[in-house]
Structures are given as structure tokens and as C-alpha cells.
Design brief:
By secondary structure, this protein is of the alpha+beta class. It contains four helices and five strands. A hairpin with a 7-residue loop joins strand 4 and strand 5. The radius of gyration is 27 Å and the shape is elongated. One of its GO terms (cellular component) is voltage-gated potassium channel complex.
Length: 200
């Protein structure tokens, strides 16, 4: 009787472990799919792939302008904010181009280097833009990204999804997939050893 109970408990444990492994593999595949339809397209669409050093030529703040937060937005989404324009010199090519914060900044408003959040307070926005402008004047050189193909004649300060960020996004589902496969393999080995012991 004791032997049968042990065998039954062992089978239940193996079934649970197998379900856990299969669940981890399924979850990792869902995470791969989610990353593939959200982050990867933005990463591949970005043409600012080459890193270089930018040298600030001028950083000016223009008067408040009314610009939409995105193309085709309603009048409620149009809000005024000081327009910061930063012009830099690319050390890789020697070109004088306009600098944008990220890829989204160019799509939201190509006239300004920085687009604040419309939900922010107007005084806070003004103070933040003045701080950003003073930082650009203080730190004259810094790394930036440009388009080596020449499709975009401008530069960005940082990419929304850099290569390291993409690798980090794939790290967790990869670890989960590896752990699930390892659990399944160990369960199968345990079952094989049990059958082999019983046969002998």
C-alpha cells in the first residue's frame, strides 16, 4: 500500500511539474508575440541607428507656439508651449542638423526639439525647457544618433527602443522558456528512469 501511495504521489508531482513547464513555455511564447508586434516594429522602423558625437551650435527658445501633440488631433489637444530649437554639428559627417529628443518628437512637432506633456503645468513646462536649454549650453558635446542613409537630415538624442533595451525585453521570456523546457526535460528523464527501474 505504501508503495502504491508513493507511486501515485510521484505521478501527481510529475503531472504538476509538467503542467508548470508547459505553462511557462506557453507564457513565454505569448510574451514573444507581444514584443514582436509592439516593440520590434518601432525598433526596425527607426532609421537613426548610428551613434556619433554631437556638438551644440545653438540652443534657442522661441515664443510660445500652438502645435498639436500628434497629427490629426482635436483642438483640445492643441496647447501652447515654448519652442526649443537645438542645432548641432555631427562629428561623423560635419553636417549642421536639428536635434530632437526621440523619434516621437519629430512626429509630434518637427519645429521643436522638445515636446512637453500637455498635462503638465505651463510654469513647470517653461522651467523645464529653460533647464534643458541651459544644459545643452553647459554640456557642449554628447552622444547622439543619426541616419547613415541620409533619409532623415537630423539627429536624435536618444532612441525609444535601443538595442540593449530590445535585448533586455527578450531576456525574461527567454529565461522563462528555458526554465519551462528544462522542467519538461527533467520530468521526462524522471519518468524514463522510473520505467527503467520498474522493468529491471
Amino acid at each position: 500500500m505504501l508503495g502504491k501511495k508513493l507511486v501515485t504521489a510521484q505521478k501527481r508531482g510529475e503531472t504538476r511539474a509538467l503542467c508548470l513547464g508547459l505553462g511557462m513555455v506557453a507564457c513565454s511564447m505569448m510574451m514573444y508575440f507581444f514584443i514582436g508586434i509592439t516593440i520590434v516594429p518601432f525598433y526596425t522602423k527607426s532609421v537613426w541607428t548610428t551613434e556619433t558625437v554631437c556638438k551644440v551650435l545653438k540652443a534657442n527658445i522661441k515664443d510660445k507656439i500652438f502645435c498639436p501633440n500628434s497629427e490629426g488631433s482635436d483642438d483640445e489637444e492643441i496647447f501652447p508651449y515654448p519652442c526649443l530649437q537645438v542645432w548641432v554639428n555631427l562629428t561623423a559627417s560635419g553636417q549642421e542638423v536639428m536635434l530632437y529628443q526621440t523619434e516621437d518628437t519629430l512626429e509630434k512637432n518637427p519645429k521643436c526639439s522638445y515636446v512637453p506633456d500637455k498635462l503638465e503645468n505651463s510654469k513647470e513646462v517653461k522651467a523645464r525647457i529653460e533647464t534643458i536649454a541651459s544644459n545643452f549650453k553647459k554640456y557642449q558635446t554628447f552622444p547622439c544618433y543619426y541616419d547613415p542613409g541620409g533619409t532623415q537630415t537630423n539627429a536624435i538624442l536618444s532612441r525609444l527602443y535601443p538595442s540593449k533595451g530590445l535585448l533586455f525585453a527578450f531576456l525574461w521570456p527567454t529565461l522563462m522558456f528555458t526554465g519551462g523546457c528544462l522542467i519538461i526535460v527533467l520530468v521526462k528523464i524522471s519518468q524514463y528512469v522510473s520505467v527503467l527501474s520498474a522493468w529491471q
